[in-house]
Amino acid sequence: MQTVLVTGGAGFIGSHTCKALAAAGLKPVAFDNLSTGHADLARFGPLVEGDILDGPAVDAAFAQHRPDAVIHFAALAYVGASMREPLAYYRVNVAGLVNVVEAMLRHGVPSIVFSSSCATYGIPERIPIVESAPQRPISPYGRSKLAGEQILADAGAAEGFKVAMLRYFNAAGADPAGDLPERHDPETHLIPLAIDAATRGAPALQIFGSDYPTADGTCERDFIHVCDLAAAHVQALHYLNAGNAALTINLGTGRAASVRSVVAAVERITGRMVPVAHAARRPGDPPVLVADASLARELIGFAPRLSDLDTVVTTAWRARITQNPVTKAGVAPACCAGSS
Q1: Residue 78 annotated in active site
Q2: How far apart are CA 7 and CA 51, in angstroms?
Q3: CA angle, 172 as apex, 281 and 123 as ends, to 5°?
Q4: What are the pLDDT digits (tens) for 264-303?
Q5: Catalytic pick from 141, 168, 212, 239?
Q6: pTM here?
Q7: Judging by DSSP bridges, how do beta strands 111-117 and 69-72 pair with one another?
Q8: Which of 64, 80, 226, 281 is the most exposed place for a label (fewest CB within 10 A)?
């Protein structure tokens, strides 16, 4: 059985990917400091509690579990927070990645799948965005992810290991089987915040910007179901195992959904109104981010099954009302369209 070390494996996307790996007959080992992840979500293989900034702890996890590959999620991942705390983002997302790559080299691990982001594109010149589009990130988060891509490309070429870089758009939804909810504290993502505002007495949903050059004035994003995203990581790993040395692909649906259309979907599915409050634009948010995922379809057979907006919202709502604690009162939502 191939062992895969999944950094950030107790987080939202990481835990769903561990489930997908286990279903594919692989052994996921979650490595997570549990600062935002949850130990009870790391249920599909061993959990190693550790921090990617702790080089000896990373090295010990490699020595103990002898992984055949790495999937690297562990990172700070909020655009707004990166504008306020850029050094923290560079420390974790860049220095932490270097620690992981150095451990790979010491232990002879031949491949890594890297969680990158559409934030590396910045404000795109054309929609949908293709992989060859200029990468001009406009936030420290996006710049830290671009730096990660460059580190892996350079190190992979110099050291001979295989690299898959997955630039995904807005992860959303939840495991339809009910095993894995989306659980952030505080919650900052659009769909769960809208659900909470509609059904759980949470504060009104703040919409950051209603004057964008879009059809309804709110940001437009490409929402991809987290299970489709998890499946793509397994497919990318198979692609590298088949002898391919490198992969860089977008993961999205190619469909735009505005903040207002998400609110409408939440109201339609829950049967309740979403109270909203309008605020100024949030720094670092492009008006529109939509993927051209045709290369992913061609190279790894990527075919989203659950990423229509109603399914995304329905699975998020069911998980939210059955498993999640109430979002903390008094926390200001930060949801132009969530982070990717």
Answers
A1: no
A2: 9
A3: 40
A4: 999 999 999 999 999 999 887 889 999 999 999 999 999 9
A5: 141
A6: 0.93
A7: parallel
A8: 64
